[in-house]
Amino acid sequence: MKGMGNMLKQAQKLQGKMMKMQEELAGKTVEASAGGGMVKVVANGRQQLVSIAIDREVVDPEDVEMLQDLVMAAVNDALSRAQEMVNSEMGKLTGGLNIPGLT
């Protein structure tokens, strides 16, 4: 029974650390761009978009599809980078433990 108590305490401690890390990750950002930097997107560790910047030169009313493609590419890259950042931080926290849903 004593072993179960220790495991429970460790799990609670890990949960507290995870909550703190999630708060910290919300303040961390990653940036991605497309079109040679003409479209820039910043996302945070909660995988929320923080900002989108579009260079005037890429805004062409005759070619809206290109702008849409550039925005989509930059957003997808930013969200992917944000996920990589989260996975990296979680890996540090869990110490490489193979816990489903945490990595």
List keywords for this structure.
2 helices; Ybab, Chain: A; 3 strands; three-stranded antiparallel beta sheet; alpha+beta; single chain; 103 residues; 17% strand
Can you walk through the features of this model?
There is one protein chain. With 103 residues, the protein is an alpha+beta fold. It has a domain at 25-94: 2-Layer Sandwich (Ybab, Chain: A), CATH 3.30.1310. Helices cover 55% and strands 17% of the residues. The chain contains two helices and three strands; from the N terminus they run H-E-E-E-H. The protein has helices at residues 2-27, 64-94; strands at residues 29-34, 39-44, 49-54. A three-stranded antiparallel sheet has the order 1-2-3. Helix 1 (2-27) packs antiparallel against helix 2. The protein is rod-shaped.
What would you say about this model in short?
The chain has helices spanning 2-27, 64-94, and strands at 29-34, 39-44, 49-54.
Strand order, largest beta sheet:
1-2-3
Strand content: 15-25%
Distance between the termini: 29 Å
- What is the CATH T-level topology of the domain at 25-94? Ybab, Chain: A
Judging from the principal axes of the Cα atoms, what is the shape? Answer: rod-shaped
Number of helices: 2
Q: Going by CATH, what is the homologous superfamily of the domain at 25-94?
A: Nucleoid-associated protein YbaB-like domain
CATH architecture of the domain at 25-94: 2-Layer Sandwich
**What's the β-strand tally?**
3
Rg over alpha carbons: 19 Å
Round the mean pLDDT to the nearest integer and report it. Answer: 88
Helical proportion? 55-70%
Structural class: alpha+beta
Name of the level-1 CATH class of the domain at 25-94:
Alpha Beta
Biggest β-sheet description: 3 strands, antiparallel
Residue runs with pLDDT of under 50 for 5 or more positions: none
Tell me the series of helices and strands, N- to C-terminal: HEEEH
